[in-house]
Design a protein that fits this description.
single chain; alpha+beta; 3-stranded antiparallel sheet; 3 strands
Length: about 80
């Protein structure tokens, strides 16, 4: 079985198997992409004025992803 590439993964990221790609990343101009938690977190770290909309199938996922990005920014 091959894993589907996450739409929000950068070219140098490895394919992920972190579940559904149904979290939404939005930058400061409201341009966005769907993706997995790991890749959306990486985008939030890279673009500080961005935001995330969690999955409808995973209540609280948006908050969890945002907190992970904030913690990662602090630890840099």
């Amino acid at each position: 079985m091959t894993s589907k590439r996450c739409p929000s993964a950068q070219i140098d990221n490895e394919p992920c198997s972190d579940g559904a790609h149904d979290h939404l990343f939005l930058d400061e101009t409201n341009a966005g992409t769907y993706g997995c938690e790991r890749h959306i977190t990486q985008l939030l770290i890279r673009f500080p004025r961005s935001r995330v909309v969690g999955s409808a199938h995973d209540p609280g996922s948006g908050v969890r992803i945002f907190k992970a990005a904030v913690a990662a920014r602090r630890n840099r």
